[in-house]
């Protein structure tokens, strides 16, 4: 099945490029609200499911043991930009469990927030694993391992108890059995489990509505949603899509992206889950798609209009075109 064009990129009067993909929106009862493209093919959700991965931190009792507040829980769900407060927050999480930065197995990269990277260069410093966008998630895994009495030195292995709990949670929420051949290794070295978009939409409908969940899991979902709504900057960073959307809508919208053009969202008031995959892996196009779908479900909020019709500017800041979401996703119109 060839997926439809969901985003067009214009320059002047011409469409310069097109992005194909698939979208699924599901309600709390398992009904499909919107389905476009092949939503049955397994996809690696990558970082889009960090909130589900963070369930083990809460459900194990580690979040309570180490007295984590909204900032720490938001960081456990984050793909942060490596800004100083992100780094300090992750360091604080590790210190709570008596751990050193060397315990992190995510690897190292420069902050994606350019001013923070420039500041390191000016200081003659190099990045550490704390600057990795997944360091908060990894700190959460380490704390869960300590709480569960498991070896923190092997927490990233697929067979580790923490990762088995993550896999079980994703299987339960998505209603999908994850075969061993659908297990890959993410960029940060932990397992990533392939699930069809329809399963991801179901998972985030459950995350949003808490329907069909045990009281403990429902409470964990509610706690993570509340933390991200209260501290959205810690989920991403300055000027980034997830932070701007959640800062604007508060508890009405939870949204999280992953590598290779994946985005997931939960709308608690409506009990809806959303899953998006851009075929070519373009994150910029996935944001436009998500902006358009949110606009269809919430209404023509100015922020959503800005993302569903994203401006394309050149290096001088001149407006040269736009990225526009397909009208079929926005619910019609131009």
Query: Per CATH, which architecture?
Result: 3-Layer(aba) Sandwich
CATH topology: Beta-lactamase
| Strand coverage percent | 15-25%
Low-confidence stretches: none
What structural class should be given to the helix and strand makeup? alpha+beta
The end-to-end span amounts to: 26 Å
Number of domains: 1
Report the biggest beta sheet as strand number plus sense, adding barrel if it closes. 8 strands, antiparallel
The helix content is 40-55%
Total strands: the figure is: 12
The helix-strand sequence is EEEEHHHHHHHHEEEHHHEEEHHEEH
The shape is globular
Q: Nearest-angstrom radius of gyration?
A: 19 Å
Specify the CATH class.
Answer: Alpha Beta
Please, what is the average pLDDT? 96
Number of helices: 14
